[in-house]
Amino acid sequence: MTEELVFYTNPMSRGRIARWMLEETGVPYRTEILTFGGTMKGEDYLSVNPMGKVPAIRHNGTVVTECAAICAYLADTFPGNELAPRPQERGPYYRWMFFAAGPLESVVTIRMLGVVTPADKARSVGYGSFGDVMDTLEKAVTETPYIAGDRFTAADVYVGSHVSWGLNFGSIEKRPAFADYLGRVTSREAYKRAAAIDDEALKGMPQAASY
Q1: Residues 118 and 56 in one domain
Q2: Is 153:93 a contact under the CB 8 Å cutoff?
Q3: Nearest of 201, 179, 180, 199 to residue 191 by alpha carbon
Q4: Which tops the pLDDT comparison, 119 or 175?
Q5: Are 180 and 92 in the same domain?
Q6: Alpha carbon 205 to chain centroid distance?
Q7: What's the farthest any 2 CA atoms get from each other in the chain?
């Protein structure tokens, strides 16, 4: 029997990414909702994630933090829905998942903070420039139906979540290719279930986001 899978989250956090991934796997899990600046920084949770941030999962004595890692772990651990890629898809799968975790998230965060990288320092940052990242992402979501090839994988949960956030909050450019890709990945029933669960959990909670 599979040991209990515990999911630590807050409905206004990156935990929404992990929730979507959990719903895609179809495996049972128990949710613990933590509060910003409260239980998230409490001794009990700091023993799970010393960063005091969500999401995290605990399964079979293993703790996994960081959304990309959680998506990859769940895809490999619960292969029933084929969310991990076929061997020939591994390159694109890892490439675009880590592109989203690295250059995409970095440049979006820097831009939201109003920090401008001097042109002569572009080589010193992993993302180059905002335009470089947007053009690269557009190419990635138009070359194949899904980010790693012709079928949906865990990488689409992760990349799709970043595209969703960026379009909703204006942190990435509103290009037709991004909207088309987002429409494909968010039409899935698991996405709709996850969003409904988090939206319901959000009712009555302080509206402090820490995505």
Answers
A1: no
A2: yes
A3: 199
A4: 175
A5: yes
A6: 22
A7: 57
Are residues 137 and 76 located together in one domain of the fold? no
Residues 6+ apart with CB under 8 A from 90: none
Give the pLDDT confidence of 184-197 residue by residue, as tens digits: 999 999 999 999 99
Domain containing residue 197: 5-81+191-202
* Phi, psi for residue 74 in degrees, rounded to 5: -65, -40
Which is higher by pLDDT, 26 or 86? 26
> How far is it, in rounded angstroms, from Cα 150 to Cα 123?
33
Is the Cβ–Cβ distance between 148 and 155 less than 8 Å?
yes
Q: Give the separation between CA 65 and CA 71, rounded to whole angstroms.
A: 10
Beta pairing partners, 149: 146
pLDDT at 89 over 90: no
For every residue of 146-193, DSSP letters joined together read BTTBSS--HHHHHHHHHHHHHHHHTSS---HHHHHHHHHHTTSHHHHH
One DSSP character per residue, 106-125 reads: HHHHHHHTT----GGGGGGS
